[in-house]
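A further point concerns the way the authors explain their paired sequence and structure data. For illustration, here is how one protein appears when written out as sequence plus structure tokens:
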Amino acid sequence: MGVPKFYRWISERYPCLSEVVKEHQIPEFDNLYLDMNGIIHQCSHPNDEDVHFRISEEKIFADIFHYLEVLFRIIKPRKVFFMAVDGVAPRAKMNQQRGRRFRSAKEAEEKIKKALDKGEVLPTEARFDSNCITPGTDFMARLQEQLKYFVYNKLSTDKMWQKVKVYLSGHETPGEGEHKIMEFIRAEKAKPGHNPNTRHCLYGLDADLIMLGLTSHEPNFSLLREEVRFGGKKSQKRITAPEETTFHLLHLSLMREYIDYEFSELRNHIGADYDLERIIDDWILMGFLVGNDFIPHLPNLHINHDALPLLYKTYISVLPEWNGHLNLRNFEKYLEKLSEFDREHFSEVFVDLKWFESKVGNKYLNEAAGLAAEKEADSALCLAALSSSERMTGEGKGTVADEEEEEDDIFETEFRQYKRTYYMTKMGVDVVSDEFLATQARCYVEGIQWILHYYYHGVQSWSWYYPYHYAPFLSDIKNLSELKLTFDLGTPFMPFQQLLAVLPAASMELLPECYRHLMTSERSPIIEYYPLDFKTDLNGKQQEWEAVVLIPFIDERCLLAAMEPYNSKLTQGEKARNRHTECAIYTYDKESEFTYSSPLPQMFPDIIHCRVRKTDIPMDAWHVPPDHVSGRIDRSALYFCGFPTLQHIKHKFYKKKSGVVVFQQSSRGENMMLEITGSDAETTCDEVAAQTVGKSIFVNWPHLEEARIVAVSDGETKFSLEEPPGVQRVYDRPSTPPPTKVTCLSDKEQKDWLKDVQGITEHYLKRKGIFVNECEVLLYGQLLTGRKYVPKANGVVELEKQWAKQVLPFAHQTVVKDIKAFYSSLTCFTSLDELFPQTTTVFMVGNPYYGAMGEVQDSSDVIKEGRVRVVFNVPHEPQLEPLIQNQHKYCVKYSPGYVLASRLGITSYLVSRFSGSIFIGRGSKKNPCGEQRANVGLNLKFNKKNEEVPGYTKRTEKEWLYSAAVEELLAEYLDRFSEVFNTVSRNSHDDVFYEDDIWPGEDQNGAEKVAEITSWLKGHPVSSISRASCDLQVLDSAIVERIEEAVEKTKVKKSTRKVRVTVKPHLLFRPLEQQQGVVPDPDAEYRLFDRVVNIRESFTVPLGLRGTVIGIKGAEREAEVLYEVLFDEEFAGGLTIRCTAPRGYRLPPCALINLSHGARVDHTSHKLTAIVKPQPAAAANFNSNRQLGGLNHSPRSPFIPTQVRPIQTLTHEERLYQVIAHYWEYITCIDIIVCVYKSADSVYLCSLQASVSSIRLLKKNEDPTSIFPPQNATTEFEDLIANLKISKGSQQTPPPPALPQASTSQSDGPLSPQSFAMVSVGVKSFVFIASILISFFHDYVLCYAMLCYVLFCSVVSVILAAKINVPHGESASPIAPPSANFSNAMMGSKVSELACVCVGLGMTPPDFSFIRSRQGLVVCQVKLSNGLMVHGPQCQSENDAKEKAAFFALQRLAFCIHQPSRIRTLGLYGVKRFGN
């Protein structure tokens, strides 16, 4: 089978087949089967190109265990977990195994020799020989014992494993792993009580698993495999950690429907005789013709040359003429029709052949074959052998001449000669007789028959094999109808017999010592089967791994006879390995208990309390008679969640080359395109809203997901749910209609709607091959995340669906309503005592003890009152506050490329080039030698992949930044190999540079220099540092190291305390299978340095282990966000994410409780909280709660929007509040620490932005005017200015009015104008705030400038705001009145905001001008006195254009404020203005 070409071809032709595995939406599976050899190879030799790679057996076993755990956790099988290791294979498979192992040994030897020739020093430890992954070796015997230990351990300790039956079919059980799995499936299916809706998942890397899965005819069957990346370099290291691996699910349920579409034309020809199940069987047979593991592919039939579409087209053309489907007689007719391809292919090369003959004077495609033919018959065209067996014996020259005269068709003559050449050169025969061709045809058809039996019924003969390296031509496979094909079952080889049959001499150490000499001794009777050198033949293929390995086939009788004299010399241990054993089934048995000894005690401990029962299964227990017929079921009315289907939505299909992108690049062949047709009746927005808003439907056809619809829009009008915050109710009863409001979309919202439509249609077309057509209505919904038990009255609990907070858009054409979905029967609790029985592990999601893990105690006396008694463990937390405040000391400092260039004395171009990739080829630019290229760049940045190397490079929106480590690395590079820099500098436009151009001297060896550079780069620590996405927020390694130190200091104290409390059940979170995907606290916000705890059970990270967030990886969907966590303890499977030990891991929000979030919302906390730069929002265009939009708005702003009142009615503290709140989005661009001190009776907010020294809470319903008596506008304005004025000389600020006693009541919400009263702003407040800033920034001038500048902006804003609203007739302010453009309310116009900011910065008011296009659209241009010029977007009116342009100008000014150097300049300028 063309692997991975078949997988790629099938995935691109049918684009919806596979999808990326997303943990929150994996379908439920009953059975999980693992083809173990793929995992073993992945964990033992991940990169064969690296000859320096070494790994211990202990590490291999640990990695395999971890891989199995992750796969089990991803799929979560409910009934069966089947692990199958390849045992002794049928003889037909051994020929391919033999070729692979010989080639593997030869390639390894060549790579080692090449490395030694370059002068590389290889490790002294022995290299892992991948050929040891063969039944019967010492390694496989040890692995089998380790797998048994792993099964015993998981069943004894893991609750999820205890619910399933575990099958382990090891290397001692004969048969290939995947075929042992299929044997089990066939046996289960043949049982009378088999559930036809059983859901299967098969993991494996072989592409023919697609065909194996289809042979089962099971409707719910999916394949799990690692992501395949095409177009990359062979030398790229494979990702071995399963956490880093992207997995794909390929759904055979969709494959069945796509096959139905592929052959739908037959429905019109054969009508009622059309049977999809028979079509699928024939499709599988056609796949065998392009080659597989047992027979070679037919000549010129290659997958990448559209062989499969040719096979399908031929099948469609001939099937209507048959009586039934494929049988031996019809198969001959099919091949006869298909043989026309042989002639068509030859006709394409015939012209080239004649041209070649005219040039070289040789009349044969292959000169050697032609000469052999002439020698045989003394003739240039000895064709008689192909037409008559009598004339093939070598008649005289004249007979052939007569035949040539009778031959009128020159084309046929050349075609037959072409085939003759193939047989003579490929198969080494001297005479191509009719008997030879008949034997070829029989062997090939016999091979097809054996494979069909093998796939559908199991092994029919252990000893049969195809005896040739090549297949015959299609036109020579004939006279089949009378063939009688029978097979002798025989017995499988013993393990040592297979070892000697498939291993090369280079791997003889894997054999028992008594057999080794048979591979190397010249006296060995089988020495001819172990050539030290051999040839390979691509035979029309392109990749070396596809080449035919030309080694002799093992003669079974000779092999067994040669081994016989030495069988008695085997040791007892070797005899124990050389046997066949049964498969075993393992189940959890709580009644039994014993100690299981570890086979590797230094690595894995003994299992003290082992509770496992083992049962052996006879080898023939799963044999099913070939004539057994399984029943079928009509499942059209039932939808199994997670299994995609093309049903439910009307569409049409056609094949077209559309360039669908499935594997990182556009496909080249035809794609099966789907076009949604929908209903004829027009659908209006209000009709869709009435049917869907507030209801649960399925979205994202054909990969359906359940979602709750919260809004519907047609681009002009929006119907949306009107619910209180936090409510996520489904309104599925007619008696309770959803509360809906109707609004008209603004211009910006209409543009967002168009972007959503465009994004959806492009994704469907380019990725799924689905044409959505015109999208008139969008639905906005929240995806289902899981189910959660919710306490009700009288101790009752109900399992309710939980929905994501994020709202996503969906096209109305791609949603499905009113379908019956199947959900598994999960363990269902109905009461609190069932949900929280004694000894249950729970977590606290309320204060106090937020996030603490506890154990439920006897609650019988309080459960009726709706409470649960729990004992919580409250460990001592590490003190990270000092590290948060001083993180700037440990952060890596980054500089632009030109800064590094100036320090190094080179150009910034060289910094940019050498930090990326630089390729050096052999030879010179004028005379290159081959295509081999070496990459001598530092590989520290990756533009296309948007990746950087933490600690070395960082990408911003405009440029790349580099650390001092890059400077040191470049300086060393420049010192060692300056000639490379010189060459790159002189030839800046070249993509590839050449050895002879860099080192032109005769005494200079360019190849040695390149090897020296690559060796130096490999030896540098930077080569082992993993790269990260540029969108990832991370803490540098130095800070992570300090966190580790803080955690270790805390461990010394060991001050965990136990607390016994009685808790309301809604504050408890119990880890349950039903709740996988449910976020414990949806309101939690994550920041770097946050402390978290893992709340997932049966997970790689131990339950209840605490850690610190050191990285945040954003995603478009909130469920796909990942947090990098540095845990407090090491654990098996931990990752080294910028840390010294394997204690890191990446987890989604549903796996964590944020302890720091609990501390932030706990008003009794006295801790200093660091508010870092807010993380970017998800990249969704729609947000149900768009609040306080603007530049970098802090999610923790203490200001919230309130009801707008006329500014004349506001008190002076309320005016100041409005100004600060309004400009908060610009002020927070400075990213200043906000210091919050909370106590039981008051909250004090000391922040640079607000410039407020102290704040107290008012009592409930307390009127602010009781503290500040109402005054008229003029006096109020003057008092406000007096309070804000800085004292000059000995002048003192008037004392504030006396304040009443602070109330002890505490407010739950954020601060508002009514919840605080300003006391004073004077010199003391400046000193206090400045001291905080200085302690953080360590720059007195910068801090003072920032403080004065922001205060100045706020004061000017208040002055202007007050002045604008002074009633007519009152005294004018010394400041000039504003222009007419400022007549609108202060908070409602971006134009007025821009004017205020300009005045505050000491600039003249902005100058606005307009440009009108031919279409009548207006563009506004803003010109500021500092030289800044900004253009706005095209708008319909001048007012809109002016507002948009003003907003853009404010953004640009805010960016200027963000630059520290400009803060200092603007701040000092602000001091000057303030003094004036």
Notes: The chain is about 35% helix and 15% strand.
